[in-house]
Amino acid sequence: MRNYIHMAILLFIISNTAFGQSPDWSVNENKFQYTMSFEGFLNVDGKTLTSSNDKVAAFVNGECRGIASPIYVQTEKKYVVYLTVFSNTDNEIVNFKIYDAANNAIKNVEKTKVFENNKHYGDLFQSYSFASPALKSETEIIDFSLKDLKAAKTIQGSQITLYAGKGTNVTTLNALFELSPGAKLFIGTTNKISGSNSIDFTNPVQFQILSEDQSVVKQWTVTVKLGSAVFYKKDAVCYAGGVIKVLYDENEVKADLTKDGVKISSQNIQNGQAVFNDLQTGKYIVSVGGTDKEIVINQKQ
């Protein structure tokens, strides 16, 4: 019996050491007639909290007005807190604290909310962030390309156009992308991972970029166009330099001219063509719409 008691005491000590002393936050819901709710997630120092021992609490003038812990939502594969905040009047300033059980630490959340009866914030896709420090709200696509496919690219606002060679199979392309820090890319509500996806670009594809703090969603459209290029050249004669002409069936596509591994000129296709003049003799590479063409300018007598 004595050994059993000793073991129970030891387990109690280990449990308290592992999880620390949880704060004694509590709220008397019967004192209040109004509620406001949140569907959110907890984040401390860039890490999402998932333990049932973690907590978020709402306060007004130091009085606890609501408490919640993360629960796992299987359908969304994410941890969510459902926080109800209580009050007897609108327009009170509500602030929040997070208890990080693993580190036995209480963190203040910088972001506050004004109490509004029956107001709800967040959902399973775009959850409200309780974070310390605050997470980022940027939703930019910094770079976008297609794995194992050379393609020219233009970006205008939130429209990205990639130009690939005619005959390219665009039904199962693997997208590579760089986003704003912490942001995620979705088609609908399905998260896509850079370099590990298969996307049909037969028609323009609309992506949703969700910010790190999940407060902002921005729509981006990526279009893959197929084109064909025709190249002409005129050799150098006497004191006149050579000429390379590129014909392409999409305007505003960039044509690059490279010599000895160094890009020496770029032009956008205008009226179906780009012309590089006054070229010295030598070997050139012209790149346009995912096609590279080697052209040699000779000296003619």
Range of strand content = over 45%
- How many domains? The number is 3
Count of β-strands: 27
Low-pLDDT residue intervals, each spanning 5 or more residues: 4-19
Distance between the termini: 110 Å
Estimate percent helicity: under 10%
Rounded to the nearest angstrom, the radius of gyration is: 30 Å
What integer is the average pLDDT?
92
How do the SSEs run, as a string of H and E? HEEEEEEEEEEEEEEEEEEEEEEEEEEE
Structural class: mainly beta
Shape: rod-shaped
Number of helices: 1
User: Largest beta sheet, briefly?
Assistant: 6 strands, mixed
Organism: Flavobacterium johnsoniae (Cytophaga johnsonae)
Protein name: Por secretion system C-terminal sorting domain-containing protein
Keywords: Signal
